[in-house]
Amino acid sequence: MLKNLYINFISPTGGVKKIAHLLFDILEQQTHLSINIKDITSHKMRRYTLSYSQDDLVIWCIPTFFERMPTVLNNLKLQGNAAMSFICAIFGNRSVGDCAREFANLLQSNNFKVIGYSKLVCQHSQHELLGKGRPNNTDIKFYKNMLNKVVAYASLDKIKTYNFETTAYIPRLKTFCVPSIINSALCNKCGMCANICPLGIVEKFSFIVKDDNKSKCMGCTACIAHCPTCARGFDEQGKAQIDAFMQDIYKTHHLAKDNEFYLA
Ligand SMILES: Cc1cc2nc3c(=O)[nH]c(=O)nc-3n(C[C@H](O)[C@H](O)[C@H](O)COP(=O)(O)O)c2cc1C
Ligand code: SF4
Ligand code: SF4
């Protein structure tokens, strides 16, 4: 029997967080169940095991990176214990690709029952026109309907597990450039970048990413977004490569996309 609702989110630059909190507010109005919301963005959250029971429904809000799930999710310590899960794969108006099903496989291998998933559009963190103004009022109406159906489904006596495709994943692209301190005069050594990096690869005292760790960087830009002085960024060459890539994406994905959700 469904007793507890959890929303866990990972949000490097705040777009996913906005949607996760909207979902929380809607659930507070729609149900009398206990609801817990947790920000699992920082690598410090990886110290804890996320453990649930079969009376729980865990709604996961995650960003899409290069049409796949953020690699850092592989570092989560998870104990599903037959808890139900619903995945919200949040994307910047390009495509969710394999993000949701890759995470569903990870959850299922940790004993969660994935009952469904959604694709939710938000402002793209690397292009100001992609997903501009999302989530908007129409999105909020969509969330209300979706959550109503998800909670009703999770409250049934018998629930099924959603069947995802089993074809090969879209190959994972690598970030073009790893952020660094681009203006050292501005760095006040506050440590925000080291604290927030989901992978914990920004060094504590030098605030650089060591060469050995560069290949782990997801390009999520959390370290840039949380820098209070704008000391961090991509170097000129990296910025130019990212801008060129994003311009190509914009050409094919500039029309506003719809949200979608699926239940087993
Ligand atoms: C490295 C990177 C790759 C991305 N890849 C995709 C993608 O394949 N499809 C898409 O629609 N959006 C993509 N986005 C946009 C993000 O999914 C979107 O901005 C996301 O919601 C960011 O969440 P945040 O604002 O909480 O960091 C990408 C963003 C980054 C930084
Ligand atoms: S170093 Fe890479 S993974 Fe870490 S916050 Fe910065 S962009 Fe994200
Ligand atoms: S967040 Fe910015 S100001 Fe703070 S240590 Fe990192 S680079 Fe320096």
Secondary-structure map:
Elements: E1 4-9, H1 15-30, E2 34-39, E3 49-51, E4 56-63, E5 77-79, E6 84-91, H2 99-109, E7 113-121, H3 137-154, E8 180-181, H4 192-196, H5 222-225, E9 232-233, H6 236-253, E10 260-263
Parallel strand pairs: 1-2, 1-4, 3-5, 4-6, 6-7
Antiparallel strand pairs: 7-10, 8-9
This protein binds flavin mononucleotide and iron/sulfur cluster (2 copies).
One iron/sulfur cluster is lined by residues 181, 187-193, 207, 227, 229, 231-232.
Give a summary of the structure in a few sentences:
The chain has 264 residues and is an alpha/beta fold. The chain contains six helices and ten strands, in the order βαβββββαβαβααβαβ. It binds flavin mononucleotide and iron/sulfur cluster (SF4) (2 copies).
Multimeric state = single chain
Please identify which CATH superfamily of the largest domain we are dealing with: Flavodoxin domain
Mean model confidence by pLDDT: 97
Shape: globular
Give me the CATH fold name of the largest domain: Rossmann fold
Strand content: 15-25%
CATH architecture of the largest domain: 3-Layer(aba) Sandwich
CATH top-level class of the largest domain: Alpha Beta
Secondary structure: helix percent: 25-40%
Taken together, the total number of domains comes to: 2
Structural class of the secondary elements? alpha/beta
The molecules bound to the chains, other than polymers, are: flavin mononucleotide, iron/sulfur cluster
Q: In this structure, how is the largest beta sheet organized? A: 6 strands, mixed
What distance separates the N and C termini? 17 Å
